[in-house]
Each structure stands twice: as structure tokens, then as C-alpha cells.
Design a protein that fits this description.
It holds the Pfam family XdhC_C. The chain is an alpha/beta fold. The chain has eleven helices and 15 strands. The radius of gyration is 22 Å and the shape is elongated.
């Protein structure tokens, strides 16, 4: 999903169950730089409480006032488009990045049962399209949709909603901890595999699941798919190789391992000789892991790995958009 959309759906449902009125916001289009892509969600409650964002903070205050004070819940409209930055004056007023403009769809009567079904699908790691028609504000959940993850025409828009990207880190020492923290900010659901008691003791990183299972067992149980990345950073082949020998056979969008070019060459030879991995499977290994940015410290290496994960994730989106390989299918 895009950013914190799962959180937005869950919060919207909670508000609706409390009997509150909620406006569901969807980014439709941006021109210039933007912190939130088309299809991103936010929700504003009838008293102005907000969950998520559509612009990173530039226009949210105006939207909150319009929704909380402007009577939008009683004016008969169920879905319409709000534009920001159409003029030079508006762009200066809203301080949209790089002279940007922004279009947002506003729905004031989201269907509770439909959003429950959508959130359930996301949490079950299934993908669904949500189609919204402008004429009557009707929304539909569909198993199939356009080639792109977001599409709009004169009658409405369609958004592909899917499970969060997941990252399985093998190793909970200093580098693993740094990488877990960075990955959380990138909206990965992070799990750390650390069977060594001396490194697992005292783990206090909130929002990260810690497992003491052996790496190969955890990889097989993890349900790795195209939205899963596996990164081995223990620097201990007895642990890293166990994860890699299974992960490289699965459809993970990224599999990487810490180590120099020489270490990577020896690792590939080991995996081929002792575990029967094919050349095609070994070619999928990102090693040395991370982008070559001159990183030296554990924190710098974590940033380089995170940057490579972003590049790989973006490539998955581009492939899906061009129909070469859909990374999120039912």
C-alpha cells in the first residue's frame, strides 16, 4: 500500500463504528514534486481530526476547516474533486513543493462494510481494486483493474490496494537494528530473525517483530511474495546461508547479504555446491548488499541498503505499470 494507507483504513473504520462522519480523501494527481503519490489516502473526521496526509501538510489545514466547518456532510455531495495550486497565488499560499499543484477526491459517505472488506483483504495479503464514480459517488471493490496501480478518467478513478511491503532482516546486531529503524520509516512491516540469545537479549525496538527461529525455517514460514525483501546481515555464513538458500528460490522482490565482493563470490559457490541453487537463482542475490555510496559505519550501511530497497521497490512498480510483471495480483 501507499505509505500508511492501512492505518488510514483502520482509523476510518474505527470512527465510522463510533457513529462519526468521515471524509475519505484520495490523491488524484500532482504536478511537480509531491510527498504523496496518486492513490494515497487520508481521512478527516467531522470535528477536523485527521489521519494520514495528502500533501505532507501543505493543504491539510484548509481541508480540515472545509470538512469540519463547511457543511460538506449535509450539502448532498458524496464525491467530488478539490484542486489546489491552480494559480500562482494558490501555489504561494499553500507552499506546495516545487510550484506543484494537487487534486484530491473527497468522499463523504464511505461504506463501512466495503472498507472492512478492503482492510481484511489487505491484512490477508490480497489485492483489490477500489473504483469510485464521480457522478453518484458509488464505490466498488474489484478483483481486476487497469494496468497501472492508479488510473483516472472523466467518470471516476481506480486504485489498487494491496498488502504492505515486508522486510525480513536476518541478524539483530547493530546493523540489523539500524536497518530495522530505517525500514520502519519506509513503511515496511519489519521482522528480525535473531536466534542468538546474546543479540536478542534486551531488544526494545517498537514496531518490529523479533523471532528466535532459525533463518531457513522462518523464511519458509514467512510466506515470501513479491512484496517481501530478505536481507542477511549477521556476517555469519552458518546463519546467512540458511536464509539465502531458501529466499533465493522464492519470489521476493529483493534478497541481499552483507559481505565484500570476494565474500559474495565464495557464498555463491557454496550455495551452488552444497544447496543446489541454480545460476539464475544466484543472480538474484544483491551482494555486496546496498548501493555503493561509500558507506562504512553500520548506520551508513543501513542507509545504503534502504536506498537499494527503494530502488528495487520502484522497479517493481514500473514493471507492474507496464504490464511486464504484476507484483500484486489476486
Amino acid at each position: 500500500m501507499r505509505g500508511n494507507d492501512e492505518t488510514v483504513l483502520a482509523q476510518t473504520l474505527d470512527w465510522l463504528r463510533q457513529g462519526r462522519r468521515v471524509a475519505l480523501l484520495t490523491v488524484l494527481g500532482t504536478y511537480g514534486a509531491s510527498p504523496r503519490p496518486p492513490g494515497a489516502l487520508a481521512a478527516i473526521r467531522d470535528d477536523g481530526m485527521i489521519c494520514g496526509s495528502v500533501s505532507g501538510g501543505c493543504v491539510e489545514d484548509d481541508l480540515r476547516r472545509e470538512i469540519a466547518e463547511g457543511g460538506v456532510f449535509g450539502d448532498g455531495r458524496t464525491a467530488w474533486v478539490r484542486s489546489f495550486g491552480a494559480s500562482v497565488e494558490e501555489r504561494q499560499r499553500y507552499r506546495l513543493p516545487c510550484g506543484n499543484s494537487l487534486r484530491v477526491a473527497v468522499e463523504t459517505m464511505p461504506d463501512l462494510a466495503q472498507l472492512e472488506a478492503l482492510l481484511a483483504a489487505v491484512r490477508q495479503r490480497r489485492c483489490l481494486w477500489r473504483r469510485v464514480d464521480y457522478q453518484d459517488g458509488a464505490a466498488y471493490l474489484l478483483n481486476e483493474g487497469p494496468a497501472d496501480a492508479f488510473a483516472e478518467d472523466e467518470t471516476g478513478f481506480s486504485v489498487l490496494h494491496g498488502p504492505r511491503w515486508r522486510l525480513l532482516i536476518i541478524g539483530g546486531a547493530e546493523l540489523g537494528r539500524y536497518l530495522a529503524q530505517v525500514a520502519l520509516t519506509l513503511d515496511y512491516a519489519v521482522t528480525v530473525c535473531e536466534p542468538r540469545e546474546e543479540y536478542a537479549a534486551g531488544w526494545e525496538l517498537g514496531g518490529v517483530a523479533l523471532s528466535a527461529e532459525m533463518p531457513d525455517d522462518l523464511v519458509l514460514a514467512f510466506g515470501c511474495d513479491e512484496r517481501t525483501a530478505v536481507v542477511a546481515v549477521t556476517h555469519d555464513p552458518k546463519l546467512d546461508d540458511l536464509a539465502l538458500m531458501e529466499a533465493l528460490k522464492l519470489p521476493c522482490h529483493y534478497v541481499g547479504a552483507l559481505g565484500s565482493a570476494t565474500t559474495t563470490m565464495k557464498r555463491k559457490a557454496r550455495l551452488a555446491e552444497h544447496f543446489g541453487l541454480t545460476p539464475a537463482e544466484l543472480d538474484r542475490l544483491h551482494g555486496p548488499v546496498g548501493l555503493a555510496i561509500g558507506s562504512r559505519t553500520p548506520a551508513e550501511i543501513a542507509v545504503s541498503i534502504a536506498a537499494d530497497l527503494i530502488a528495487s521497490r520502484s522497479a517493481c512498480h514500473r514493471e507492474g505499470a507496464h504490464g511486464e510483471e504484476r507484483s500484486c495480483r489476486t
